[in-house]
Amino acid sequence: MLIVQLSDSHLSADPARRYRDVDADTRLASMLARVARYQPDLVVVSGDVSDDGSTASYQRAAASFEALGCPWVWMPGNHDHPATMTEVRALEPVIHSNGWQILLLNTWIEGEEGGRLGEAQLVRLEAQLAGDESPALIVLHHPPVSVDTAWMNEIGLEDRETFWKILGRYDHVQAVLCGHIHHEMTCLHQGVPVMSVPAIAAQFVPDRPDFAVDACAPGGFRLIRLSIDDTQRPRLSTRVEYVPV
Ligand SMILES: [Fe+2]
Fold it and tell me: InterPro entries in the record, alphabetically (predicted)?
């Protein structure tokens, strides 16, 4: 099964409005043209689909994802407006495919840039992992780890300690994918790979304490191949593909 993870398209109601000196609609179109070559089985969009939470931005994004002709799901990021988003397309909490479970979490907090899973969702996550032992891939907008960018850590995932306590009680979570930081990152936490994806729109400069944008840096998407091998072990391979601007 081939999944493509996309993130942070930051579209606005007015397609002419630029996001951090970048034409977000053009970036999305060129990204999806490249994604289409792979004919993925599933596209997962990990938040900040919209920059202004407008219906028009969600409708344009949804039409673009739909045109790929494959199943696709999205989840909110801090810039999104979940109620408006779900009027265009519902949020799905879990997808089962090819022996895997893909868990899609919502970290949105009204009026804040940081994220939180919240008690109810953490209870559901624990129940899901306790009740289904198939290999799991978790996707959420905010990274549940510290990153090498001080300002970004201030708007990270509030309740990540509880998240990792839950994951520590199970051994079938194979990887965690996120967006939000607008650049590629990979680390291990409690033995679980945590990976971010570049933004569709403008990239943030990693590894520096203050905020900086590189409007010329290419955006990208993550390709994730999931399977179960002949000995019934889960197999995950992944790489990021960059799309020149
Ligand atoms: Fe973003």
Answer: Calcineurin-like_PHP (IPR004843), CNP_phosphodiesterase-III (IPR050884), Metallo-depent_PP-like (IPR029052)
Give residue 153's region: left, alpha or beta (phi > 0; psi -120 to 50). Answer: alpha
Which amino acid, one-letter code, is at 94?
V
pLDDT above 80 for 148? no
Cβ neighbours of residue 102 closer than 8 Å, sequence gap 6 or more: 3, 42, 44, 94, 95, 96, 136, 137, 139
Residue with tokens 């197999």: 235
Distance 185 CA to ligand 1 centre (A): 15
Q: How far apart are CA 182 and CA 178, in angstroms?
A: 10
- Mean pLDDT, rounded, of the chain: 95
pLDDT at position 150 is 75
If you measure from the C-alpha of residue 183 to the centroid of ligand 1, how many angstroms do you get, rounded to a whole number?
A: 10
Cite the DSSP H helix spans in the chain.
24-36, 55-66, 82-88, 119-131, 150-153, 160-168
Distance 230 CA to ligand 1 centre (A): 39
The Å distance, Cα 160 to ligand 1 centre, comes to: 19
